[in-house]
Protein 1
Amino acid sequence: MFPAPFEYRRAQSIDDALAALAKFGDDARVLAGGQSLIPAMRYRLARPAVLVDINAIDDLNYLRERDGFLTIGAIARDYALETAALVRERYPLLADTSAVVADPVVRQMGTVVGSLCHNDPAGDWPVTALAARAELTVRGSKGARTVAIDNFLVDSFTTSVGNGEMAVEVRFPTPAAHTAGSFHKIERKVGDFATASAAARITLAQDGTIAESGVAIGAVGPTALRVAAAEKLLTGAKPSKDLIRAAAREAEKLADPTPDNRGSAEFKKAMAGVLVARALTTAFERLGVGGLK
Amino acid sequence: MKITVTVNDTPYTRDVEPRMLLAYFLREELGLTGTHVGCDSSSCGVCVVALDGDRAVKSCTMFAVQADGHEITTVEGLEQGGNLHPLQQGFWDQHGLQCGYCTPGMLMTSYVLLKHQPKPSESEIREAIAGNLCRCTGYQNIVKAVQQAATAGGAS
């Protein structure tokens, strides 16, 4: 099915895009990779009257380390992350994620910022962004503001980007020394929505205890969920199998999935725990803490 | 909206509604029916074309207006001067198809793969075509076809 009719505006600059968004307000949507938005429009789940295409704004196509962050512009593709040596070498959590979003062809168009803005409950990037404690820059006619990912993800398909605003960049903190992360998901086939997913990030202190942690789960709630109770257990503790099990139990408790043909609620809750355990185990292994007892 | 899209090195100017999807623009406006439509929802990969020569895109999930000023390569653009592209020859020689429905998408996804990785490993080929469904072959001969093309210098 074709989408409902809409007006198409190709923005040549960020200011150009913001002017169009200010003019059309709630009727306008930003078109980046379009890999979620266009199918949603085809199914008439979304009916924007105006699409503001930002793909020609070269100023938004970047992936670089700056001021302690990996900064990713609004039209940087998943494929750019997947193939960047910088990401592979220094951001294992992001490398894991970029290699499993949708399928390899979709990743050549789809964007990281677009995925965060779409905020699909089963999306991959919101989960990773929570575990990594990412932040976004949202611009409007009155200037730019920085929004922490926890405040950015409001509800299913809803973010804190207001009318007339657009997210122009996401920033992932450059991992401190002795930091590793990992992303795991279960999907029925490549390209399907996740049945469940989990991301974990661990920083070890000199004495081998956990100095800092991030744990999040996806596809088991209205949005990706931060497992704060697991982070609390992990931080300050010494890595062990029991600790991983305890963190996984917190994910199971927090998960509130909707049953569908990918599995029952009970199964998905269990998988949220299993995936948190796998993500933590991989993160520890990457830190040289394998074979935990 | 008036757009000019260069398809297989030929510029075409047409007046289209913004909601016209690229796959339908190619098939119905330009009569280039080599690009197939399958799931029509970005899942099956039969509609893949190359955007500006170096990106494989699902043309059912891109608007024709987005291609304004860009270059599109479709399966019709692979053959040159009556000679099959090494990928097409590979699919022929290795029996990389049965019904043929997925073949244009397989060819175009592989075409872009070889641009980026002229000598992909078997697992890299399998990974690259993970978004392209084939219900006939079990993929084995498709992988062999891409391997043959890579050996024959299919990246050119």
Protein 2
Amino acid sequence: MRETAPVFVRRFDAFDRVLHGFLMLSFLGLAATGLPLLFSDEPWARAMTRFLGSFEVAGWMHRVSALILIAVFSVHLSRIGRRLINGDYSVLWGPTSMVPRLRDVTDFVGHIRWFVGMGPRPKFDRYTYWEKFDYWAVFWGMGIIGFSGLLLWFPVMFAHIVPGWAFNIAMMVHGEEALLAVGFIFTMHFFNGHLRPEKFPMDTVIFTGRVSLDEFRDERPEEFARLKREGGLQAVLTDAPAPWLTRLGRTIGTIAITAGLLIVGLIVYALLT
Amino acid sequence: MGRPSRRWQVAGLVASFLLLTTPAFAQRRAPAPKPPDNDTCLACHGDPAFKSDAGRALGLDPKKFAESIHGNLSLACIDCHTDLKAAVDFPHVPKLARVNCASCHQPAVDAYNLSIHAYARRQSATSVAATCADCHTAHEIRPAKDPLSTTYALNLPATCSRCHGDPAIIKQGHIAIGNVAALYKDSIHGRAVTRSGLLVAANCTSCHGNHDIRQKGDPASRVNRANIPATCGSCHEGIKTQYAAGVHGAAFGRGNTRAPVCADCHSAHQIQRADVSAWQLDVIRECGTCHVNNIRTYRDTFHGQVTSLGFVRVATCAACHGAHTIFPSSDARSMTSPGRVLSTCQQCHANATAGFAKYDPHADKHDRDRNPLLYYASTFMTWLLLGTFGFFGLHAILWFPRGFSERRRNRRAPPPGPGDDGGAEI
């Protein structure tokens, strides 16, 4: 299999990559316009808001970003829905589903054992347990932040339906969950996906959609074996991503990671002072 | 026998007359000994450029003196410079006694003697604290109603600023408040006086009095904390009445010295228009100096966060509680009382409903009794955050060293290149 040209495996299709791009954009936008409120007594929060013009401008950018994110979420859900309608239940269970299974628990235990040198590295399949956590964290966050955010956006309207104290909880939850989401994405997701030594400085697969066969075999041996066994490997083999695409991915990745770490730095600074 | 003796008698009389009158004759160059008149004085002092040998200005403008109130009253120089009344020899002695205004203006000087200016003078011989002439001038004194007077309402701030806006004098006099002239100039009162020429606007003396400007620590001072509402109320009568009825004014009336008075929110010398954003934001902080918990919970709300960012298009303390007529929400007159709270919300949220007004603008996520659901939700969120970050933080810390050796192994394994970092353990 080791020929002249490097062989790659297609992991994400263009649709998912573009969707992830909009997810990143809206998430960063939401973080940059929302955190100044949560840390409103910080000098940087005032500076950021003034830079944007006023809290009204920041507020509208926040709402526009929220709408983009809601659209991303809706598109994703509709894609899953269509697969289900077409009778493709592999999204609900099995190795290519995001739904957790027993295998994830054994993988996790095996991974920890491997960390401390007590066993071999687990043979991961298409989605690892931490990737599934990332996914469901966003899912949960979308529900919590999205719904509480809408409540806060249209309080007078929602006050016909929910009691007044719901806005108190919505306000608190929106902020705390945002802190969790922002903190998690900009530290844990960045570390697990990009900054850990094996991937440092970043993994461009979410931008190019392609991963080299060597890396794929090494990282997801179970998926590799499964595809080989079931004869699906040839279908996903592809050539190296175009250099411009890799460059673009690196650029976007660098900007996003830098922005994210900067925001984390500001949060940590605010929490420590 | 009689003749010679008579001759001697005559001789003796002549001699004694001569003896007695000779010194008088010697002085007889000027007319009879009477006090110098103003023209005599002005012969030298009428030249505004007239200076002593030491360079001290000794001249005055005769025209200005003539126009002054003392000039109008045809006062003589020696009416004030009384030690020259008997002077006959000119130029007179260089050092004259200090003019005593009290000889005519006893009540004003008595009042002055109670002032901080007089106090400073008594404390230190080198004090430059204001005396009569520093404010009224010496030879150009005009009545306070005269627009050219230094004590005319529109000129007074400039007169006081000669010292209270002079950094050297402020330093020398240890004037704690600093350059108060600059603060006042930017205030609504200062602008009204200096820009709009508004006679009714407060100038320095409106609040501090004129001759008996007392230290604010003095209970009799107009600017003593206990007297501030009355002092401000002398113009702002309507607000004073409102304030007196409100919770703060009532507490003040009961003698609670911690109750806020006008200057606590409005400041003393930098009083701003009530619609100035920066001031409105300052007042929120000011409320928070006593209402510590309320400002903390306020900052948890969107209202509190936006104002903290420096914008006031959202509810401030006063927006919901009122400014001068604040009542506890148990009082039916309160803007936050059950009967009025909805209309208070509707000031901004026009279509707010009764359910909307059930929102707690001071909900405390740490107070289980006041906001039980919020408390439990917040506790849950705290543990969720701690749990997630703790779990994945540990996960990452464990992964990190493993990742390093993995990276080294990966580099080495696929193509055994020449410049390999060989020798590393697997």
Protein 3
Amino acid sequence: MKRRTFLKTSALAAGASLLQSCAEDEQYLVQPLERQPGRPGVSRWLNSVCGQCQAGCGTRIRIVDGDARKIEGQPDHPINHGGLCALGQAGLQDHYNPDRVRTPLTRSGSRGSAGPLEELAWHDGLAQAARAIAAASPESLYVVSGGRSAYVDALLARLTQALGAAPPAIGQVPGAETERAALARILGPGRALPAYDIAAADYVLSIGPAFLDRGHQPVQGTWAMAQVRSATAGRRGKLVQAEARMSQTAAFADEWLPIRPGTEGVLARAIAGALAEGGLLREGSQAALYSQLFPAAAPSIEEAAATCDVPAPTIARLAAELGRADRPLVLAGGSAALTRNGEFSTLAALAINLLLAGFDREGGVSVSEPAAGYDFRDLGEIEAGARSGGTYVVVEADPVHTRPEGRGWREALSAAESVIVLGSFIDETALYADVLLPLHSDIERFGAVEASGIARPTVSLARSAVAPLYDTRHPGEIVLALGAALDQRDALPWDSFDAAAQAAFDARYDDGTGGAWSQALDGGAFQAERAEAVLPEKLAAFDGPEPPASTADGELTLVLFESAKYGDGRGANKPWLQELPDTMTTFMWSSWAEISVADSQTQGIRTGDLVEIRSAQGKITVPAAVRPGARPGTVAVPLGGGYTDYGRYAAERGENPLALVGAETVAGTTAAALVGTGVSLRRVGPGDPAIYGRGLRDAEQIPTGWASMAKGGDH
Amino acid sequence: MTRWGMVVDTDRCTGCEACVVACAEENNVQTVGEEEAKKGRAMHWLRIERAVEGTFPEVSVKFRPVMCQQCGEAPCEPVCPVYATYHTDEGLNAMVYSRCVGTRFCANNCPYTVRTFNWFDPEFPEPLDRQLNPDVSVRVDGVMEKCTFCVQRIKEGQRTAKGEDRDVEDGDIQPACASACAAQVFTFGDLEDPESKAAKLSKSPRARHLLADLGTLPGVIYLEDQEWNPGTDVS
């Protein structure tokens, strides 16, 4: 036998014997380590509920070797239909964030700074929290929730009621308080939100809401617009966006009306007038109700054009297009609800739907019932009251960062008797915490979210998808534990959050068989039938103030908005989102100020320059983004920058524009007026922001880029 | 033969960038931090481009997701001295990371500027490393990378079909960007299969190639924006 043949034969024989030994799993020489039930290296997908905002999208988590590796939307989920937004996709970096709080902490230094914090056992942390709540008088106990789960909030409401305290204050999407108030003026007392059937509409006029950027239901809105453009209603639909800032929604729209901020209501009234006068009312139009609501004559198109800075022929054409569409829909609120006269603007826009016979029809407006039937109040109600001392319980909310500086949260929490925070990170509010009780991440917890801003009541449910990484707990379990420690077992008799959530769910939706809960838990979601929006016989005239947006001469109007990647700031601690180029400006790792070409020329400002924005309340310095789509006379700044802590990815990045906003409210409500503050602008010097530079960006290149493919050519 | 391709309907793209995050999550794309990002070294395999036209108030913006176009005649392939980038028989411009020596010739030659280079080793502070997708190798410094059409998902789909003794069906395989997109902008499929949804859409009168006059024969086909016309039924 030759040497080479010998070697070959030996190798084959050795290989064959190894193959033999691998024939059965048990015979692996080295047994793989099993970290979790299931085969190593094999992925499983488990349902969960996204908690990055209040929308309640259903998610599914890819798990390999016990670790979550990917988040996607549940394909058949009634809210998100398989999609998910950037913030939701980045939920993994919430779960695996290196700066998550891993054990209960207590403060030994002064409030308002990061340290020193000491670790606590859960038993001691809960006992300290319970002692603080027990020591508080009911009238000075303030419970604040970020509104991530109606079922947790319902437990908080039970606890406050049992203690004789005011109901919890729920942080909401900006503009929501005003949208509720406006809807109540049409449908009568209640706290429902308007819900829009965008997917079935063929013509959508959005007066204010940047519903694709964020808002109540950003993913569903995106899905719905895809339906509108897919000709679901027979032909490709149209979206018209009336908004002062060119948001992503405005950029996506077929037509954008860069309206003067604060005048959205005047535009809406003029369109309504043109509909009535142009003979464009349809069968079922509630013209009588409309004129009861707004008895005064509508402004003429020319008057409105002068006030709103929208050409008169455009207003006339929009009215005609709305009147002739098969299923027209007008969206109200959003940025229009954030000016001082936001209630008027929101109501005027919403009421156009009366003329379009748009209530309770396919492709129209209906109501989103207040979730889970519990009592709550707006954050503004706490802010409006006199606060001295007081004990605060803050659950997954950061009012110090997300409320205007002029609302006094820093001062209130500094002077508080006790501050108890249930959260996952050292955010601006947690800097004031005496006790910080850390929470499970979205995918670790039993998810129970009742969506708002959707016509059919929808509950997303899921068991925990992965085991907790740290010594954390479910916020609902903590509330139950506090209830037990405070001797309130009668009000909170459940042993676990899922039992409490099931009781609340069954009370509302079960038909007696008990099947709905388990079906929803297995399937990811439950949907009830749509609540009817019953119009009253008669409406009271709108008596609210209609103050014009007023900024002093020479001042610019400040427009604050939630960007798709930061939201109210909750996205700022995720590196994927910090490095995500903002769609409109391509800024990364920073806040920015959107300035018009005209204003930039008068002040000699170029993109990237640092500018100081100053108001009566304060000042910030941020890099400028000069945008062709920015409205002259406005400065738009995204929320979500300027954390002093909130982890390594968020700390000391950008600035919080809420430092510029005082205590102004939307007239007639306690909602914060985030649009309309008068500011001055000054170039400070050159800046060095991170701006994404790649792309075939030159406009001249586009015609080449879009050169038609050769018909039938090889691709 | 299979030719994997993607149809991108720009008429539906809202610029939400969910796809960009989904891509980073699926493919272990590193974040480089603020200072490196300032130098143009952000690593995204997929970007949303915006074409801004007009002056205020007549300004219009169009969004367009741009990833590796998986060219049939790829300018990046012939310039690689070590065959790290090559053409698969399923039409993909594939990368063998372990062969790459970092000449960056491929990036220099890519007219779509979709290739990104690892100037440093990635950092995933504990426990962020536990989010990594075990099906995708983590690239080290000196290595070029780009969109693969989520080749690991293609392989998984093919393995699953084979295990079930059937052919891969249209729609079985979804890259991460397509899975994430609520607006259903992306349609992935076999362009050589005339019955696939992607192949049918690629014959649309709205179909365009990016920089078509370069003759790169991309596997990504864009469907141009539509105008709203109250009188036209486009279904």
Protein 4
Amino acid sequence: MALVTLLEGIRQALFEEMARDPAVVCIGEDIGVYGGAFKVTAGLLERFGWERVIDTPISETAIIGAACGMSYLGLRPVCELQFVDFIACCFNQLTNFVAKSYYLWGAPVPMVVRAPSGGGVHGGPFHSQNPEMYFAHTPGLKIVYPSTAYDAKGLMKSAIRDNNPVLFFEHKFLYRRIKDEIPGGDYTVPLGKAAVRREGRDVSIVTYAAMTHTSMDAAAELAKEGIEAEVLDLRTLMPLDKEAILASVKKTNRLLVVHEDTRFGGIAGEIAALVFERAFDDLDAPVRRVTALDTPVPYSPPLEERFLPQVKDVVTAARELARY
Amino acid sequence: METKTNPAVTREQQLDLYRFMLLNRTVEDTMTNLFRQNKIVGGLYSSLGQEAISVGTTYALEKRDWIAPMIRNIGGLLVKGVRPRDIFTQHMARYTSPTLGKDGTSHFGDLKNLHIVSPISMLGDLIPVMTGVAMAGRYLGQKIVALTWIGDGGTSTGAFHEGVNLAAQQRAALVLVIENNGWAYSTPVGRQVPIEHLADRAKAYGCRAFIEDGNDVEAMFTTAREAVRLCRAGEGPVIIEAKTMRMRGHAQHDPAEYVPKEMFEYWKRRDPIETYEKRLAAAGVLTDKKKAEILEGIRAVVQEDLAFAENSPFPPPELAESAIYCEGPLLVEPQWERPVAEVTPPRSSVKPEWRKAGRGEFQPDAVEGAGAVPRSGTAPAAPSPRVSGDGARRDGAKPAARAPSKRAAKSAPPVRGRK
């Protein structure tokens, strides 16, 4: 087994799916000869040609719209948004056209929207955001946000084969920092299934994407104090694996939700409500949240560090919960 | 602007065009009555006076081609093969409607059989979507044409710009009909844009355009036929600006008191159905007997479908919770009409070069010629777009020489709206 990065896992998935199914095409800005801003599509053009690796003008609305139209004829387009921050430019196409198509008139939209996302690389306010909850709030879309290379590859394959529009968030801080052993050959990771990254009995830390690693580091710290945290990586936000969340809470009786998204309207509030509605009697302590600040993502390193949840923040909150 | 070849319109085609316009108007008149009886659940948007555009342009398509209607394109739906009952049940929010009551008006489609993409209320969104339909059709080797419409108001949206630009860059087989009916809700076109002809914008996009009398159904048909021919030959996209007039308010609730009376009177005299009826009668194509036959045919289908709609139930409440995601197979699997081997390795493999013919090469002449040359917004010169190396012209072939500029409009209608 080879050790590959999260970025390479996604790239492998694109190569293998394009080779497997001629209905899969890629469309986006600078994805052809240049290979994409982060080089995720590097080499695709050479192998699959101009008709299947389509460079577009800077037109996010046109990229999403055209991909939707292509999907109506049975193609499976994979769009690249250069940074997920620019998803705001095609908000209408995604939320009004793509997301509602199947519900309203029965037209499935089997397309994937890939986008580098997240902070921690000093990208500033327009290259660091986590806008997943705008879309989790829109019925009809699926939302994937992997934390490992193995998952990224398997989830990308599932996303491409899914008959619904899938937003695939690729955390750019993890792109080259996370490496996994990935088996050769075809495998998929199902959408809508969370993964327990670490078993524990004292407190559940529910998280996803880059914060999975922050939470794992925190869990290691906590273990030194004798607190065994369970870390649940959601992997997919829509559909949300509610059963996995409830099962973990029933086991530990304490819930901490950690996300890099801003606090107000983040998925932590939704998960807290789920647990209050369905597992209130299992709780031994109030639900806690560790999230980014309710501000834009600031640029300067000390400001961004303050903005993003840190290991120490997770440790403190989990410790307080465990001792509640 | 472009010139067009103009093969004769056959007698049969003429009667079809007349019949579809009449069907369009009868269906809408029927719905106006339903609206007054409070049987239309939401709004009702009239295409009164614009029937020639929907009918004439859609009539130029083949069965395999795709359309995406806007709110005033019921005529296009009827020509494509939609039954009036679908339009009635949609407006009446019944369970038997194509969307089962989940959406209204002309917001429905048919991927599998009729090749219709449903619109949404946001203007301009269909242009990139139908560009994608055309791109997919080309990729699959289907030689289809995608046609959609936009109002004068919708041409000011960002989606319009992104869509037309992508279509032109891709040389997509897209026919875009701009229905210039003079009004965007209450705002006259002269207060939306500082230009007289919306089709003039085609020059900036590097695509072809025609300006046509939107109240002349044969003109709409033959111009669309030429646009479709160009698109099928790989010379798309083509814009057709149809000059017409919205003869009602934005919707039924709007009495359109902002429209000058003489404007309505002028366009009333140019009613597309009445003028065509006179023309066909004078030419001996439409006899009294034929007309009676057509009217009876329309009356019968409309009555039958109206009864069907009125007897249809509303949807069960629990339907609201159904079908957020597609859990089953796709309705449409890709229909390949070219060898798949052409788009799979090894044949799909290319050298990733920047300097491909027409694709990003350095052109010193373009820089030196730039100077301080004034660019008139009304310059009539024909477009000479750079051709991208991808998509339709993978071989880097040069585009065919452009036809000399000549406006195709027969008689430019007078300026509408207050400037």
